[in-house]
Amino acid sequence: MSLYSEHPTVLVAGLETARREVLRQRLREAGFRVIATLTSALQTIHAAWELEPELCIVDASLLARGVPVVRPIKVRLPSTKIVVTLPRLDSDATVDAVADGATACVLEQELLAEPAAVLRAALAGQATLSADLARDLCDEVRGARPARAPFVTGASITR
Questions:
Q1: pLDDT per residue over 18-33, tens digit each?
Q2: Are strands 104-107 and 33-38 parallel, antiparallel or unpaired?
Q3: Domains and CATH numbers, the chain
Q4: What per-residue string of b and e applies to 123-135 under the rule 16 or more CB within 10 Å gives b?
Q5: Which residues face 81 on adjacent strands?
């Protein structure tokens, strides 16, 4: 038995109006219930606290405005799954969102193409990164670290 309802509740924050409406329609068709759509960080936090959605979709544009969104929701509603959408590759925003408690970080076009799959994975607790975001993040981490010494086989340690 799932901890979540048959028609999971979703709060959508940020995103441009037309994209928000496309997402709302696709979620409705997939059996989700969009209970609020918001455009500001503070509205998002307060609505999440009041409505206690099973899922929050938060556009990264809200995170860039200086008001933390993900962490206050996760602290007060630890079982709420948060999916952060990014318009383009941004490893800093990805790291910040995951560190603050996001369950998933996906590129906006991937969410719009397959919203039900992304949200069902988040509900199942699967930590999800878009493949392009994961590759970008790995490339950045690899570039930031000094190269390690090559692995040597057959060596022994002596005193």
A1: 999 999 999 999 999 9
A2: unpaired
A3: 9-131 (3.40.50.2300)
A4: beeeebbbeebee
A5: 55
